[in-house]
Specification:
The chain is built from 17 helices and 41 strands. The protein is α/β, with parallel strands linked by helices. The protein folds into 4 domains: 245 residues, LmbE-like (Rossmann fold); 56 residues, no CATH class; 118 residues, Immunoglobulins (Immunoglobulin-like), CATH 2.60.40.10; 206 residues, Class I glutamine amidotransferase (GATase) domain (Rossmann fold). The strands form 11 sheets. It has a 7-stranded mixed beta sheet with strand order 3-2-1-4-5-7-6, sandwiched between helices. Helix 1 packs antiparallel against helix 11 and helix 10 packs antiparallel against helix 11. The N and C termini lie far apart (69 Å).
């Protein structure tokens, strides 16, 4: 840490004001306000994102739902490292677009998520809360947005009441009442803010005191970390000049001159803190930039004074901050490395502990502590300036340590909220270290504890992936061939599970746990894998019940008494750490009556979906296409072509190859084009053989209620009858939503609107499924979210999609 950064940390240590910013999703936050509060004003600043962005779109790859939420969690953490804020979450799931806060709060479980917001307030103890969105009668333009503000105001009023959520009080949290809660207002399309009340304005421009960079530039770099949302371009944008912001009071004491009016941000607010404030003033006034070690005696004296304060969340946080300042002035660095970042429970960890010190201040390395196993590894070594010291040890990772998995994904939740059994984890952005480490030093007669965790250095990797955290893995990982397996009623088919050894000599048995009414044979299969990395594919025969239905089949391996039942999935984006997920290894078996007349399907990828895998389950042979394949000659012999979601948004050359695709249709082919998103990135106004437009009020041209009634506008249309007779039952069990980004206008002389549907209180939308004959073939444009329904194993979605690809056959 360079001297200017250390001095700024001292200034930050001197400031006790705290601000909590609350909104609904990753990228909702005002990054310039966070940078201004944290870096410009030195306040403790945090962002509470109610969700992890699980329900959004992914501009970078195929990860959706929970996987996307994991990636966006890391994007937020990367953003906070730039703008200086901290990050919190609730257990709420981003279940996609919601038109009303009432729907949102019902799906989220209002009381449960409110409890989480209260917990974060009691944990972080902000003086002021700021919301990104207004409460009614204002609107955030999205049910999640408005709901986040409603929850913030409710939690503001409850967090200080000991009778509200008393379980948190019993856990050790104290009631906390912030001074006020404000709305960080903005104009809705140049219209006045919808709320009135006491208002204060503040210029959040300025420069970072350490680097000199404009805070707007820092904010853009922070916002640019949201690359899965297509915001990477912000990173290179300058952000100079003033930035006035308006804040409207929602509850609490009215501000007059600034958002922190009436808040004591000095050490005088803390009993016994006045002397600490005076000591820090002296440290700052006489800070030795050119001889950092010269600051150590004053820091040690300050540390002794700070130790006199009783335990308190803010005091404890300041103690940790002071220890980091002391460590920086000592030039003391620690690192715990291991040869590989993955370990199996019960193994000895090959840890290398390295310590260096740049100053000549006497420091003695006393021990290394492993808190999770309550073991101290004695060292007792004086450190010498510029001379690295190291020790190797081999503590055992406790047997029974579960495989690493984001804590909010360990158990099955509801459609609206994650299940978290350990309340101490609620609110945290990510898991604590799998095997924490503490370095114990003696300096100036005091004990200094420096926390750390084991990492693997990965040479040649992007900066974000150069150090991999320790992850716990099972001795074998499993992989099912398909997340969904389709069966005819009473039919049987093979199901394959791949077993991969993580260590040499993996011997055991594998079984599929068949639910009631289903059969799996044989009962178990043995395997023996000699070397790490070896794989074997084991085949079971699954027999479906005589009627329609669905069930989950967990795969379980027993290896040396260890119960192994997880897959291995890696999310790899260069701007983020490598993310290892280990979800349960299981597939959904679906018994349904399904007929398909198309057998050879071409698939042109869009922004990412799993439609090819679903087509394979339907018995189709799938050929991956590129833009250059969109000619009648190359498409000849295909029964249908399916275009991935948002293909026109992400494929720059697709529009110019559209004539070849239309010629294929004219010659008798069938094309199913899934939804695109309106806006500048669309790049074309021609999406089909006849005019149709998706421009317009996109938030309203969708149906968010997955249970919305569906009307058959043309009951005799082939899409609803051949080869599967579609009924109301085929729209049961849909997940998250019916459809999105429906066309706003279309050539009604050529396109047939097949279905009508609507959210409660709204007029029916008729453009979810548009079908047009063209020449001797068929063109389909659909906003129905097949990309969500097919991976979820929704039977009716498979039957309807089979009809679409079978058009004309």
């Amino acid at each position: 840490m360079p001297a200017p950064a250390i001095l700024q940390q001292l200034r930050s240590f001197q400031v006790l004001g705290s601000v909590l910013y609350i909104a609904a999703h990753p990228d909702d936050e005002n990054t310039q306000l966070i940078a201004y509060l944290s870096r410009g004003r030195s306040y403790r600043t945090a962002y509470l994102s109610i969700t992890r962005g699980d329900g959004g779109q992914n501009e970078l790859g195929p990860e959706f739902d929970a996987k996307l939420g994991v990636a966006r969690t890391q994007e937020l953490l990367a953003a906070r490292r730039i703008d200086g804020g901290r990050q919190f979450f609730t257990r709420a799931i981003d279940f996609g677009y919601s038109k009303t806060p009432e729907e949102t709060l019902a799906i989220w479980d209002h009381q449960q998520v409110l409890a989480d917001v209260v917990r974060v307030i009691r944990t972080f103890q902000p003086d002021v809360i700021i919301t990104r969105f207004p409460i009614p009668p204002g609107s955030g333009g999205h049910g999640h947005h408005t709901a986040s503000a409603i929850l913030a105001v409710e939690a503001y009023k409850l967090a200080g009441e000991a009778t509200a959520f008393p379980d948190q009080i019993r856990e050790g949290l104290a009631p906390w009442r912030p001074k006020r809660i404000l709305w960080n207002s903005f104009n809705f399309g140049n219209t006045p803010p919808p709320l009135t009340g006491p208002t204060v304005k503040e210029d959040i421009g300025g420069n970072d005191p350490v680097t000199g960079a404009a805070l707007g530039t820092v904010a853009n770099q922070s916002r640019g970390m949201h690359k899965t949302q297509g915001l990477g371009g912000f990173s290179g944008r300058p952000g100079d000049g003033p930035r006035p912001e308006t804040f409207i009071l929602l509850a609490g004491d009215a501000p007059i001159a600034g958002i922190m009016d009436g808040v004591d941000t000095t050490w005088n607010r803390m009993p016994g803190g006045a002397e600490i404030g005076r000591m820090v003033d002296g440290l700052i006034a006489h800070f030795q930039r050119d001889d950092l070690a010269a600051n150590v005696p004053a820091l040690l004296a300050l540390r002794q004074e700070l130790a006199k304060l009783p335990a308190d969340p803010l005091a404890d946080e300041k103690r940790a901050q002071l220890d980091r300042i002391l460590q920086a002035c000592l030039g003391l660095s620690v690192e715990t490395t291991l040869p590989r970042a993955e370990a199996v429970a019960g193994e000895a960890l090959s840890l290398h502990h390295a310590v260096t010190i740049a100053s000549t201040v006497p420091v003695r390395w006393m021990a290394v502590r492993y808190p999770s196993i309550k073991v101290d590894f004695a060292v007792d070594l004086p450190l010498a300036s510029g001379q690295p010291a190291s020790r190797d040890s081999a503590p055992v990772l406790p047997a029974g340590t579960p495989p690493s998995q984001p804590y909010w994904l360990r158990e099955e939740g509801t459609p609206g909220t994650f299940r978290v059994d350990d309340p101490s984890l609620i609110g945290r952005p990510e898991n604590p270290p799998a095997f924490p480490v503490e370095y114990i030093f003696a300096v100036g007669g005091q004990k200094l504890v420096v926390p750390d965790e084991p990492v693997q250095r990965v040479a040649g990797s992007p900066e974000a992936q150069a150090r991999r955290q320790l992850a716990v893995i099972p001795p074998v990982s499993l992989r099912v061939d398909s997340a969904v397996e389709l069966f005819p009623p009473g039919g049987a088919k093979p199901a394959v599970v791949e077993v991969t050894a993580a260590r040499d000599g993996a011997t055991g048995t594998l079984r599929l746990e068949a639910p009631a009414g289903w059969r799996a044979a044989p009962a178990q299969l043995p395997f023996q894998l000699a070397h790490a990395g070896d794989q074997i594919r084991l085949t079971f025969t699954i027999t479906a019940p005589e009627g329609p239905g669905s069930a989950r089949f967990p795969a379980v391996a027993e290896v040396g008494g260890a119960h192994c039942g997880t897959e291995r999935e890696v999310i790899n984006y260069e701007h983020l750490p490598l993310m290892l997920l280990q979800p349960p290894a299981r597939f959904k078996a679906v018994s349904l009556d399904l007929a398909v007349r198309a057998r050879r399907i071409g698939y042109l990828p869009g922004a990412g979906d799993s439609i090819p895998e679903a087509l394979a389950q339907m018995g189709c042979a799938v050929t991956q296409l590129t833009d250059g394949d969109l000619t009648p000659g190359k498409l000849q012999g295909l029964d249908a072509v399916v275009i991935g979601v948002r293909a026109f948004n992400v494929r720059a050359d697709l529009a110019e190859h559209l004539p070849g695709l239309l010629a294929y249709i004219e010659a008798g082919g069938t094309v199913i084009e899934q939804y695109n998103r309106p806006g500048r990135e669309l790049g074309t106004t021609q999406l089909g053989p006849y005019p149709l437009s998706i421009e317009g009020p996109a938030p309203r041209l969708r149906v968010t209620d997955e249970n919305a009634a569906v009307t058959f506008l043309v009951p005799g249309h082939p899409v609803l009858n051949i080869p599967n007779k579609i009924t109301d039952a085929d729209f049961a069990g849909w997940v998250q939503e019916r459809g999105t980004y429906f066309p706003s206008s279309w050539d009604e002389a050529h396109y047939t609107a097949v279905l009508a549907m609507n959210d409660p209180g709204e007029a029916p939308l008729k453009s979810s499924l548009l079908v047009a004959p063209y020449g001797r073939g068929w063109f389909v444009y659909t906003g129905l979210v097949f990309f969500r329904q097919l991976p979820a194993g929704v039977p009716g979605a498979y039957r309807l999609f089979a009809n679409l690809v079978s058009l004309g056959k």
